[in-house]
Amino acid sequence: MSTLTGWKRTTQVTLIAELKGFWAEDLWDMHHSPTGTLSPNASQRRLTFDCKSAAINGELKYVCWKKFSEGQWRSTQELTKVHLMIRWLNSLEDLPASLMCLSFLEWQVLYRKYLLNLGMYKQGTTNRMNGIQQPTITARDSCYMSLLRQASIMLRDAYDLRPAHEKDVWDLERMGGSTNLSRTNVRLGFLIVRQSWLRKAAKLYLKYCLPLYAAGTCRTRVQAIACFSDFLAEVKPYARAKDIKRKLLLDYVNYLQKRVRTGSAKNHVLSLRNFLEMSHREGWLPVGPERLIYDEEVPQPPKPQPRYLPSAVLDELNLHLGNLSKPWQRMILILQECGMRISELLELPVDCLTQDARGVHYLRYLQGKVRRENAIPISPVIAGIVQEQQAAVRSGRTGSALLFPNSKGGVLKQASFAHRINRLAYDHDIRGADGKLFRFQAHQFRHTVGTRMVNLGVPHHIIQRYLGHKGPEMTSRYAHIHDATMKDKLSEYLKGTLIDVSGKVVADNGVNDTVDLQWFTRSVLAQALTNGYCAIPIVAGPCPHPNACLNCAHFRTDATFLEVHRAELHETERVIAKADANGWVRQSEMNARKRENLITIVTTLEAHHG
After folding, report:
1. What φ, ψ does residue 557 adopt, rounded to 5°?
2. Which of 87, 251, 434, 565 is the most buried (most CB within 10 A)?
3. Under DSSP, is residue 546 helix (H, G, I), strand (E, B) or coil?
4. pTM
């Protein structure tokens, strides 16, 4: 049996020596565990370490100690797997000095054979909805194999004595990175960067990025460097840092555009440019100080539009919501009102609800991207839903600090949420406008809330604060929908009639009366009036005849202002009647023409629009 690189007996002794007190014993009574947060099962109370190899026995204790003390195991249900693994190891004729003496794949072959002989090797299954909204079942390895895999990963990391930032695989949670526990992967691997000199610089770069950016951003940047690494391996396999010149990078930009989506190409180029500029500044790589890729050379994808939920789809979803269990119902209802990121929802603490002196409820949570605590007002209905979920969690057995924990008290995975809601769409045939089964994405709820707020006239800086956008650029995406909504409404009237003060129909001006141009004109250039539009553009300066619009040839109006004109006609007639009664001839004469024009406007608009 060959020893894997990194294993040393002295290191093994040091690791086992870390076990103190309760954890150093060969018999663990989990009712007296120092963690104090376990849920011991009566039939799984004790854990006995009786492997015939004292060294491997110590390594297994080390693994179990880490799992329990770091909160990865919150109950004793894993004890059966540990006992079975020890029985298997004891069945082998010769045990090596360490579990590190064989690779995981080598151990896996031996363990699978043992389980098959016992009739205990059964693969599990995972049910998920695929990309075309069809249920799929995928096989996963035996649950007994998971402990072997976890032990191999943990011991490999423990025997690697290099500083954490020099290792090829980073545990972001241990390194204090901003991890998203609702996603499965909390590790960051660098082996995908092929060149050793480039990998070393990439680690230094990510060490700088880790305290500043979310785990997803850090992972994206490693992938960008790995893509550049693949390019070098393909077109310039013996390249070194000194070979990174402008021409090579322009070739890389062309290479990207043929292999990845435009949006991904843009992110890859920007991430690589930032990496190279940082490498020059910090001395990680001998690259020049000049900018190697200019802004105009960065691939530009189409501006993404919000993926809001059509009202018909949302109605269908709510109609069938009762087919989900209560926690899933509550999650979806909270998303519909609050527009939180799914990771923020799944990591909500159970004590997230507060109330001010006036009785208004607020939802408090940590906003992921801006990394700050936020408090947003919520309706009494949502407050009641949160209180119901709080009561359910506090009466449960997991003792979780989360509002929506999984069965073990930990963070639910985003993939589970996606499966539940898309399975509902499949089971109840929820379809979009194109007639296809609708595929839900959690972020669509966020876009729907943002779009609704814009269309209701909520100021952009309030929306930015409410949704936790870093800058106004993201909020402005929702404003596009608002403009589109207004243009749709405007187009209805452009197809109808626009009249002047005398009731004369103003003819369309061909290309200048398209919806887009008229929307721009009325929103930016036109002088808005309470009862219509002034045909004199703003650049011509203020009107020389204030309050004389209904006697002005430049005045324009349409059916959207019909009720305003009716009310103004009624008020004008009242003023004239009062002037006539008091003998105010001048006032009566001034309003008489206004009344005539109003009668003409109202009559014309009623004739054209019923």
Report:
1. -155, 170
2. 565
3. coil
4. 0.67
Q: Give the integer Cα–Cα distance in Å for 508 and 461.
A: 37
φ, ψ of residue 364 in degrees (nearest 5)? -105, 130
d(CA 380, CA 360) in angstroms, rounded, equals: 8
Cα-based distances in Å from 68 to 83, 104, 146: 16, 22, 16
Q: What is the residue-wise DSSP string for 368-400?
A: TTTTEEEEEEE-HHHHHHHHHHHHHHHTSSS--
CA 350 to CA 376: how far, in whole Å?
16
Measuring CA to CA, which residue among 146, 126, 155 is closest to residue 59? 155
Structure tokens at 358: 């006036």
Q: 386-397, pLDDT tens digit by residue?
A: 999 999 999 987
For the CA atoms of 287, 291, 293, 298, the dihedral, rounded to the nearest 10 degrees, stands at 140
Alpha carbons 173 and 66: distance in angstroms, whole number: 14
Task: Tell me phi and psi for residue 66, to 5 degrees.
Answer: -65, -40
Q: In this structure, are residues 402 and 393 in contact, taking their beta carbons and an 8 Å threshold?
A: yes
CA distances to 87, 311, 434, 474, 583 from 304, rounded to whole Å, are 56, 20, 20, 10, 65
Sorted by where each starts, the structural domains of the chain and their CATH numbers stand as: 1-161 (no CATH), 162-302 (1.10.150.130), 311-479 (1.10.443.10), 496-610 (no CATH)
With H, G, I as helix, E, B as strand and everything else as coil, classify residue 222: helix
Distances (CA, A) of 128 to 124, 125, 198, 207, 416: 13, 10, 37, 35, 8
Contact 417, 346 (CB under 8 A): yes
| Residue partners of 524: CB distance under 8 A and separation at least 6 | none
Give kind and range of the element (H or E) at residue 217.
helix 215-235
Confidence (pLDDT) at 40: 72
Maximum Cα–Cα distance across the chain: 122
Distance from C-alpha of 165 to C-alpha of 200, rounded to nearest angstrom = 10
Which H, E and C letters describe 241-305, residue by residue?
HHHCCHHHHHHHHHHHHHHCCHHHHHHHHHHHHHHHHHHHHHCCCCCCCCCCCCHHHCCCCCCCC
Q: Which of 535, 489, 533, 494 is nearest to 513 (CA)?
A: 494
According to the model, what pLDDT value does residue 511 have?
A: 47
Identify the burial level of 380 via C-beta atoms within 10 angstroms of its C-beta, where 0-12 means exposed, 13-18 middle and 19 or more buried: exposed
Kindly state the tokens that stand for 393: 């969690």
Mean pLDDT by 10 residues, the chain (610 residues): 64 94 94 80 87 96 93 86 96 93 94 95 86 86 92 92 91 77 80 96 95 87 96 94 93 89 86 95 90 89 77 92 94 93 92 87 80 84 94 85 89 92 95 92 91 82 83 76 60 52 57 47 47 51 56 70 84 83 75 85 80
Token pair for residue 339?
Answer: 């527009």
**What local confidence, expressed as pLDDT, does residue 28 receive?**
95
Pairing status of strand 353-355 against strand 361-367: antiparallel
DSSP state of 310: P
Looking at residue 408, what DSSP letter applies? T
CA dihedral sign, ordered 103, 107, 112, 115: negative
